[in-house]
Automatic annotation (TrEMBL):
It is found in: Cell membrane. It comes from Sulfurospirillum halorespirans DSM 13726. The keyword Repeat does not apply. This is histidine kinase. Keywords: ATP-binding, Cell membrane, Coiled coil, Kinase, Membrane, Nucleotide-binding, Phosphoprotein, Transferase, Transmembrane, Transmembrane helix, Two-component regulatory system. It catalyses: ATP + protein L-histidine = ADP + protein N-phospho-L-histidine. It is an enzyme of class 2 (transferase). Its EC number is 2.7.13.3. Pfam families: dCache_2, HATPase_c. SMART domains: Cache_2, HATPase_c.
């Protein structure tokens, strides 16, 4: 029996269209919602990890500051008097008892007097514990466990025996309440007095942030689902209208075949007349797409720059934090004289000036070049290494620069540096991905009478894509799907070959990849114009 007939062709088209669109919408909706939940969970885990890490840094800083204070007080104490040591103990312990940090009353310092480092039922006395004053002066056991059965004292004793300090996560009662909450504490042994100084912080504050995020996500999902339903109904209406029109059109086509042939012939003639304008329009669209790729490449580079700023600023920020802590201690102890203040101010100004220079380096890197200018390759390499070298060397990767003599070329300096930065970043990622020990990146500059060649070589295992030239095509990447966009090398090739009329080539050699940028020496062209 014939199912499709001229009399029911419109109905079949309508039903088929609704079924296909409904299936696609349901599948896309399910995929979208599932993906959003995965993203939310990943964000929650990342937030928790960052929160705990920040807490750990605060605890370590507080305990280290107390030990530094004790050492400072010892250096100022005359121990020839019999009661000097006991007085010093009393002063320090009284000071510790009243310390609160992080703006939270329940963030306090507690101290153990160690009797037996090997552990046991009376391994230590509780000297200070503002949360549990009932335990002060009492012997404590390393067999004590929290509500989850975790013997955290055994854990920190083992760590202190091996490293001298310990971070432990457990659950404990909050001050002035019977509420049990998760907590992270930092324990450090002060050998001279045979005491363990510890600081703890409750980590349940992050639960409030997570609840807020979940509520916002739920509201967002309700809005997304409502929007999806409205869009579905709209598309269904359009699809039905289109299906009815298409069905009627097919019916008319079957009844008036000759008329349709004449109409198509006329349309073909009109198409031939407008072909040139349509080709021009498509070329324009391709150029617009190319500009979008360039913009996307800029944003990706900006994200990498932010990561590099973090690497550049980490050490000066730590120095500035230590300097401020020293000033605070001296001020609290009335030891801050004019000379010390001036010295510390000069140190702080030097650190701030270094950070300011770092910002200038990054700002100059992203400053657009409208005109071609002569610039030094050596200077460009130095500028790029100031930006990215720390993030490379932090991965235990060696950078070797072989530039016997400098060369000058005419072009767009910031775009050239963007290409070099991209190649160095890819080399670093290749070495990290390969898991190779003793990673090395070599930058070499060679030249002859006409050409200047800059080579960037790594030992990250080489490029596995074949043919290897395909690596320069858009959206082709050797990285994992979520780690690379596949447009960095495509944009680099456009900049070198179209903007600066050079060559960018790659080959595998000596267990790695070698990228070569080749440019004419003494680039002969009227200066001016804009880069890609």
């Amino acid at each position: 029996m014939k199912i499709i007939k001229e009399s029911n062709i419109s109905t079949i088209i309508i039903v088929s269209t609704i079924f296909i669109i409904s299936s696609l919408m349901l599948f896309n909706g399910y995929f979208f919602i599932s993906k959003q939940y995965e993203i939310l969970q990943a964000q929650i885990e990342d937030t928790k990890k960052t929160f705990v890490e920040n807490k750990r840094n605060v605890l370590k800083r507080e305990v280290d500051a107390i030990i530094e204070f004790i050492e400072f007080k010892k250096s100022r104490t005359n121990f020839t008097e019999p009661s000097a040591l006991e007085a010093l103990h009393h002063e320090v312990y009284d000071w510790i008892r009243h310390i609160r940090y992080g703006g939270q009353e329940h963030n306090y310092i507690f101290v153990y007097q160690v009797e037996h480092m090997s552990g046991g039922d009376k391994f230590a006395k509780m000297l200070i514990n503002p949360n549990r004053p009932d335990l002060e002066g009492e012997y404590i056991s390393d067999a004590y466990t929290d509500e989850n059965g975790k013997a955290f004292r055994k854990i920190f004793l083992q760590d202190i025996h091996e490293k001298g300090y310990s971070f432990v996560e457990y659950i404990y009662k909050k001050p002035d309440s019977n509420i049990i909450r998760p907590k992270v504490s930092y324990f450090k042994l002060y050998k001279e007095w045979n005491i363990i100084i510890a600081a703890g912080a409750y980590t349940d504050d992050i639960d409030k942030e997570i609840d807020i995020a979940k509520a916002a996500f739920k509201k967002k999902m309700e809005l997304e689902i409502t929007s999806a339903i409205i869009i579905f109904l709209l598309f269904a209406l359009i699809a039905n209208t289109f299906a009815v029109m298409l069905g009627k059109r097919i019916e008319r086509f079957l009844n008036t075949y000759h008329k349709q042939v004449q109409q198509k012939t006329l349309e073909l003639e009109n198409l031939n007349k407008t072909l040139e304008s349509r080709v021009t329009e498509e070329i324009k669209k391709n150029r617009e797409q190319e500009q979008l790729l360039i913009q996307k490449s800029k944003f990706i580079a900006l994200g990498e720059m932010i990561s590099n700023i973090a690497h550049q600023w980490r050490q000066p920020l730590s120095q500035l934090s230590a300097l401020l802590m020293t000033l605070k201690l001296k001020y609290n102890m009335d030891k801050l004289d004019k000379t010390a203040m001036e010295i510390k101010c000069v140190e702080a100004e030097n650190i701030v000036e270094y950070m300011s220079h770092t910002i200038d380096d990054f700002r100059n890197f992203f400053m657009p070049n409208k005109d071609k200018k002569m610039f030094s390759i050596q200077t460009s390499i130095d500028d790029v290494l100031r930006i990215i070298a720390m993030s490379i060397t932090n991965q235990e990767i060696e950078i070797e620069v072989n530039i016997l003599h400098d060369e000058f070329i005419i072009g767009y300096k910031s775009e050239y540096e963007q290409v070099v930065l991209n190649l160095l970043s890819n080399a670093k990622d290749a070495i990290i991905t390969s898991g190779r020990q003793g990673g090395k990146i070599t930058i070499s500059l060679e030249s002859d009478e006409q050409m200047v060649r800059l080579s960037i070589e790594d030992n990250g295992g080489g490029i596995k894509i074949a043919p290897i030239e395909k690596i320069f095509e858009p959206y082709v990447s050797t990285k994992e799907q979520n780690e690379g966009t596949g447009i960095g090398l495509y944009m680099a090739k456009l900049i070198i070959e179209k903007s600066m009329r050079g060559k960018l080539e790659v080959r595998n050699e000596n267990g790695g990849a070698i990228f070569t940028i080749e440019l004419e020496k003494g680039f002969k062209e009227t200066l001016g114009g804009s880069p890609l």
